[in-house]
Input
Amino acid sequence: MIYYQNGSINNDLTHEDLQKGLEEALNKVGAKEKVLAIPPDFTRFPSRAGELTEMAWNYYGDKMTDILPALGTHSPMTKKQIDIMFGKTPKDLFREHDWRNDVLTLGRVPSSFIEEVTDGGVDFDWPVQVNKMLVEGNYDLILSIGQVVPHEVVGMANYNKNIFVGTGGFEAINKSHYIGAVYGMERMMGRADTPVRKVFNYGSDYFANELPILYILTVVGVNKEGRQQTYGLFVGDTFDVFDIAAKLSLEVNFQMVEKPLDKVVVWLDPTEFKSTWLGNKSVYRTRMAIADGGELIVLAPALIEFGEDKEIDRLIRKYGYFGTETTLKAVRENKELSDNLGAAAHLIHGSSEGRFSITYCPGKGPENLSKEEIESVGFNYADIDETMEKYNFKNLKEGFNTLPNGEEIYYISTPALGLWAFRDRFVSS
Output
């Protein structure tokens, strides 16, 4: 059932608009005695999920007993991040998800189904895993809060991904990422009905249908002036609510470029991006737009690591971003990688497959990744000061820019809020 929907390419929803819409939906849901909220972490700050979580806490008061950020494999949130993102929401409500230890398996999606939806690409089964709190907490309402936006693993982010990946376990996260990577990221990005989504939906329908989950979904994008704008709020407990949000997201977040891009410059906000595990959204979201022989330049002043998980960081350092063929060969030959398929999927997603160069420009502090470290994983390195003098993001507008020397570049300030593709490459993918 859809309890509330307000979505349009002409919307610019305010805090008050979100509050009114959320309260209208929750009034329809009816009184609840024990509520769990599952918002994203700080890496999804633009989603406005922090505001919505605070609104839900104000609505339910002490009946909201727990808040479980959907960390997936990400690092736990700091107290400062919680303050910034969730306002006055009490810190003692927040719990940390441990993807290696805190999960229960509700059932398994059969390998025959996965083989069918991946066109024979993958033939293992998939565990439907969630944080044990969702099952053992005796909640009569679970609020899954987040943003629908194009995503490299599942096609379009959120809905039950927030549950099965955000609160999922080691095996579920690894295998779901690998399914998407093997099937092909270009065949997935910007599509709501993908093999990974079908696997998640199977898990919802057959094994998680007793969980009292209500989805609160936003659509947020960057407007022509470079300002983040909220275009939609959707609340419901069925796939329909995700489907309508995904349709709006494609209108808002998807940029079809008229020609392949020769040079793309991406800014990674230092408050959000400290790893290539997250920072490679600059690669994922632009890969279909960049010309063969082109260049992606990533301005990453806060880059200090490859993976946020220590073991994944080690695997990235060892195997690098060298494309699908090299990575799949490494998976076949190395148990440590075949046991960490999520890391393998990330290595595939983060490669240009040799089509274009990727140049990272990290900060120059002792904590930042060095030139040697950057180059060891298959990326190019450039000095951030010299590069920012040439491509000063403060003077650039979203999209095409012609510099004083006549060079044309394409600038992106917030890669996590979009998907860019050249029409011919998207259609043929």
Remarks:
- The two ends are 33 Å apart (CA to CA).
- The mean pLDDT is 94.
- The first strand starts at residue 2 and ends at 7.
- The chain has two domains: 2-255, 258-428.
